[in-house]
Automatic annotation (TrEMBL):
HAMAP family: PRAI. It catalyses: N-(5-phospho-beta-D-ribosyl)anthranilate = 1-(2-carboxyphenylamino)-1-deoxy-D-ribulose 5-phosphate. The gene is trpF. Residues 3-195 form the N-(5'phosphoribosyl) anthranilate isomerase (PRAI) domain. Pathway: Amino-acid biosynthesis; L-tryptophan biosynthesis; L-tryptophan from chorismate: step 3/5. The keyword Ligase does not apply. This is N-(5'-phosphoribosyl)anthranilate isomerase. Its EC number is 5.3.1.24. Belongs to the TrpF family. InterPro entries: Aldolase_TIM, PRAI_dom, RibuloseP-bd_barrel, TrpF_fam. GO terms for molecular function: phosphoribosylanthranilate isomerase activity. CDD domains: PRAI. Pfam families: PRAI.
Length: 205
């Protein structure tokens, strides 16, 4: 199982996550308690291995601003977490992950509207567009036809429920932020446990 640790704000947490098997790291450039500056993101990204995806999270930002930050920092992918249209998602020269809020089965119909290779399915938005620690009904994804898109499961995941979530939703990748934090800061122990349990799930299939 591929794993993305989102909301990285320091080198220690980023490197530790990668050393323990993280396939992708997320850097939040939208309004959030985990918002990072391009300068700091660049410092972290330049110390990461090439194979790790470096994903920038944006909400309703202008494409030219996003690409400027991507070029400045070394992002490999862009995650759009706002009200971006399918057309908006086609304005980039690097892969796009479109985040969608899932509250009912009808919301899954949005998946086919986007031409992105990746679609991130998250809980309905709270104070922020993501990272609110609230899960949605994973059973909505049982037997879902993704039509070739890579589904990333997010929203309320943590070390205690990750195995169950993977078993029900069977995503391409899982994404965690607040679920591996203590008092609002990345917890290295929780990161290690989450990664171990997510990766182990694949081994026993």
């Amino acid at each position: 199982m591929k794993v993305k640790i989102c909301g990285i704000m320091d080198v220690e947490a980023g490197l530790y996550a990668v050393e323990n098997g993280a396939d992708a790291l997320g850097f939040v450039f939208a309004e959030s308690k985990r918002k990072i500056t391009p300068e700091l993101a660049k410092e972290i990204i330049k110390q990461l291995p090439e194979h790790v995806l470096k994903v920038g999270i944006f909400v309703n930002e202008k494409p030219e601003v996003i690409m400027e930050i991507a070029n400045q920092t070394g992002l490999t992918d862009v995650q759009l977490h706002g009200d971006e249209s399918p057309e908006d998602c086609e304005a980039f020269s690097i892969p796009v992950i479109k985040a969608l809020s899932i509250g009912t089965i009808a919301d899954l119909g949005k998946i086919d509207q986007y031409g992105c290779d990746y679609v991130l399915l998250d809980s309905p938005k709270g104070k922020y567009r993501g990272g609110n620690g609230v899960k949605f009904d994973w059973s909505l994804l049982t037997g879902i036809e993704s039509n070739g898109k890579k589904i990333i499961l997010a929203g309320g995941l943590n070390p205690e429920n990750i195995a169950e979530a993977i078993g029900i939703a069977n995503p391409y990748m899982v994404d965690v932020s607040s679920g591996v934090e203590t008092n609002g800061k990345k917890d290295l122990g929780k990161i290690q446990t989450f990664l171990a349990r997510a990766k182990r799930r694949e081994e026993v299939r």
